Amino acid sequence: MSATVIDGRAFAAKVREQVGEHVTRLKEAHGITPGLAVVLVGEDPASEVYVRSKGKMTLEVGMKSVEHKLSAQTGQQELLDLIDALNNDPEIHGILVQLPLPDHLDEDLVINSIAPAKDVDGFHVSNVGLLGTGQKSMVPCTPLGCLMMLRAHHGSLSGMNAVVIGRSNIVGKPMAQLLLGDSCTVTIAHSRTKDLPEVVRRADIVVAAVGRPEMVPGDWIKPGATVIDVGINRIERDGKKKLVGDADYDSCAAVAGAITPVPGGVGPMTIACLLANTVTACCRANGLEEPE
Ligand code: NDP
């Protein structure tokens, strides 16, 4: 068997196109331009790349993009004051603080100072609680992108066994909540899980969000299962730099029914969902109908 490759790049392009159409309607019918502010503290090279491409794509779909680049020495109060100003800026509908923050800053305090309605990353404790109780919330972008691809591939996910490997607040836990919301039977695995291969072999859907290059081999995968690979790991092989996921692509693709590649799978969907969340936040702020 050879797995269907779920093309995250093509899927994300379609989502961005829909976002762009919605932005055009908001401008033409209501004179409103959705605005996204991204805050970057410090000079982490990977974060700088993400922020740049978020800014570029925000502009491409016709939205307003604001970037605040602060020095690594920025104090807590200075950052909180900036977030407060963005919370009160009517032209800004989404605020994203790029993580990780330098160690001297309190990440929880910073994230929870973002107005929940503008928290387009969905990390504010209010949004986490709303998602957990099945209420309307801002949904974290990476798991949202995974869910959209799963729904597009399978239609209904009801009754499927899903195993999420990883229990972080930004990927594993919200992913599990979303799959539960779609009536999967969900197992969350982590570094203390006993007999992980056996746990994974029961899954119709495997979401790998571990941060360990190629950790999941094909012989852990039930034939025909869908593998969603969230991992982004930079490795060096044969003297060349390479991006790989948390699943061993070749051996998993030989057994799975469908798989997301790295790069070109979950990554592009994350930014597309960020743009979609910003439009949603803008519509909610203005009492307008939201995109589906
Ligand atoms: P974290 O490091 O926060 O969490 C990793 C999780 O994996 C933890 O829950 C940890 O368990 C678990 N884990 C680690 N080792 C093992 C093991 N040997 N067996 C089972 N579980 C294990 O990572 P993130 O959730 O932030 O990110 C995960 C991956 O996804 C990374 O590669 C990251 O780069 C990528 N990522 C990709 C995004 C995208 O847009 N595509 C966005 C965000 C992240 P424990 O809790 O017990 O320590």
Automatic annotation (TrEMBL):
<keyword id="KW-0511">Multifunctional enzyme</keyword>
<keyword id="KW-0521">NADP</keyword>
<dbReference type="GO" id="GO:0004488">
    <property type="term" value="F:methylenetetrahydrofolate dehydrogenase (NADP+) activity"/>
</dbReference>
<dbReference type="InterPro" id="IPR000672">
    <property type="entry name" value="THF_DH/CycHdrlase"/>
</dbReference>
<dbReference type="InterPro" id="IPR036291">
    <property type="entry name" value="NAD(P)-bd_dom_sf"/>
</dbReference>
<dbReference type="InterPro" id="IPR046346">
    <property type="entry name" value="Aminoacid_DH-like_N_sf"/>
</dbReference>
<dbReference type="GO" id="GO:0000105">
    <property type="term" value="P:L-histidine biosynthetic process"/>
</dbReference>
<feature type="domain" description="Tetrahydrofolate dehydrogenase/cyclohydrolase NAD(P)-binding">
    <location>
        <begin position="140"/>
        <end position="284"/>
    </location>
</feature>
<feature type="binding site">
    <location>
        <position position="232"/>
    </location>
    <ligand>
        <name>NADP(+)</name>
    </ligand>
</feature>
<dbReference type="Pfam" id="PF00763">
    <property type="entry name" value="THF_DHG_CYH"/>
</dbReference>
<protein>
    <recommendedName>
        <fullName>Bifunctional protein FolD</fullName>
        <ecNumber>1.5.1.5</ecNumber>
        <ecNumber>3.5.4.9</ecNumber>
    </recommendedName>
</protein>
<comment type="pathway">
    <text>One-carbon metabolism; tetrahydrofolate interconversion.</text>
</comment>
<keyword id="KW-0378">Hydrolase</keyword>
<feature type="domain" description="Tetrahydrofolate dehydrogenase/cyclohydrolase catalytic">
    <location>
        <begin position="6"/>
        <end position="121"/>
    </location>
</feature>
<keyword id="KW-0554">One-carbon metabolism</keyword>
<keyword id="KW-0486">Methionine biosynthesis</keyword>
<dbReference type="GO" id="GO:0009086">
    <property type="term" value="P:methionine biosynthetic process"/>
</dbReference>
<dbReference type="GO" id="GO:0004477">
    <property type="term" value="F:methenyltetrahydrofolate cyclohydrolase activity"/>
</dbReference>
<dbReference type="InterPro" id="IPR020867">
    <property type="entry name" value="THF_DH/CycHdrlase_CS"/>
</dbReference>
<comment type="similarity">
    <text>Belongs to the tetrahydrofolate dehydrogenase/cyclohydrolase family.</text>
</comment>
<dbReference type="InterPro" id="IPR020630">
    <property type="entry name" value="THF_DH/CycHdrlase_cat_dom"/>
</dbReference>
<comment type="subunit">
    <text>Homodimer.</text>
</comment>
<keyword id="KW-0658">Purine biosynthesis</keyword>
<feature type="binding site">
    <location>
        <begin position="166"/>
        <end position="168"/>
    </location>
    <ligand>
        <name>NADP(+)</name>
    </ligand>
</feature>
<comment type="function">
    <text>Catalyzes the oxidation of 5,10-methylenetetrahydrofolate to 5,10-methenyltetrahydrofolate and then the hydrolysis of 5,10-methenyltetrahydrofolate to 10-formyltetrahydrofolate.</text>
</comment>
<dbReference type="GO" id="GO:0035999">
    <property type="term" value="P:tetrahydrofolate interconversion"/>
</dbReference>
<dbReference type="Pfam" id="PF02882">
    <property type="entry name" value="THF_DHG_CYH_C"/>
</dbReference>
<dbReference type="GO" id="GO:0006164">
    <property type="term" value="P:purine nucleotide biosynthetic process"/>
</dbReference>
<keyword id="KW-0560">Oxidoreductase</keyword>
<keyword id="KW-0368">Histidine biosynthesis</keyword>
<dbReference type="InterPro" id="IPR020631">
    <property type="entry name" value="THF_DH/CycHdrlase_NAD-bd_dom"/>
</dbReference>
<keyword id="KW-0028">Amino-acid biosynthesis</keyword>
<dbReference type="GO" id="GO:0005829">
    <property type="term" value="C:cytosol"/>
</dbReference>
